[in-house]
Amino acid sequence: MSVVSCSRGDSLERLRRAMGFLRFCVCRAAVPCMFAIVAVASRAQARFITDYQLDRDIVEVPFEYKGHQILVKGQTGGRKDLTFLFDSGASSPVLDTSLGLRGTHLADTHIQEADGVTNAESIWLDDLRLGPENSAANVTNISVLLTDLSQISRVLGRHIDGILGMSFIAGFVVDIDYEKHLLRFRRERDFTLDKVVPDNQRVFLFDVRRSNPHSKISTVLLSGLLHPKYDYDFLLDTGFGGYASIAHLAAEEAGMIHSDTPRVAGTSYGVTHSFESDKIRAPFLMIGGINLSGKIVSIDYRNKDVIGQTGILGNKLLQNYHVTLDYARHKLLLERNASAEEEDEAARPSFGIIIQSNSKTILVNQVKRYSPAQRSGVRTGDAILMIDGRPVENMSTADVANMLTSAQGEMRFQLRRGIDPNLGTGGNEYTLSMTPISPFEWKQD
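^ that's the sequence the OP posted. Answer follows.
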């Protein structure tokens, strides 16, 4: 979302018990997004004991990796084949009201977003399961929140029935295998990381701690550095589709960002509200023994620079590792599985053109400010006729978009000026040559 962060340092104790978060980040060619959900806690006392069960010693649950989000199938309340977002950045599950679920009512509550609130209901459910029959991870008697998740579904481009948070995850030792798209669940008593010897090159072992030390189950934090003398905490958040996010105030205090720091601006979206975020290259960033200096990270401007807002580590970073979280023993294992990381969209050479299809015509839908396209005189509404001498009329929009986003050097374009119905102008063809450059290098006049 995006995407990208949310305040984790809420000072009000009543916010902490049922906190939940969802973040989603997509490429800048689409719309950068992040969701942030903070549930105000119910005062009701727990009447049930949550129980964690596995049908087998090791349960493997396949997941779909879409838009750098982990989507898994599960069931609850007699409803099967439901799609859940697997989100370690949420402390409790959040389910869509459209499911019509019935459980023991705890309280009418609300979800606190970056700039507003959304109504919700807190209930106890009998069960929540991941995986197929006879090979599932099952949690009985679990507290969940019910609210409208339609905004999340719209941005992801598919229906999302719920978000699975830490109160589901914490009762197991959980592996995230990004290469094979598998979640593995083990019982705590059957697994240990005691014999793992980290080399801080490919194998990294972290001590994690609860973000809310007063709660038995909460999200977890890792220690990092924004500067050799600036300690900073990061939330482990598989509901964040980005790389890493840092609160604006912390980045400023650590000297990571200044008024002249090159950045790529964007807009992120919550359930009902939008807010600004930037991407920069981190001059210095360490997470334990992992050196992320020079990587592209997001700067979060939400919550009016509330002191105590933590950073976020998301799937674009975590996907380079085999991840094992042992919540009960407060351990996190990251084993490197990728030789080269996925390049961030903001680092790729770009013309600054967003296109759309109108019948057989490829039209310029948006021209980014300060981009090579804007400086070359390309306008919204212009039609692209040829690229490097190749007619685009028989190409799909995806093929043209791929040509534009994969370009490494100068390309020649033939376009037709869009018609302005008010002025009666346009329709003339023109040609130009452009060289794509990274948005970090787009210069403001």
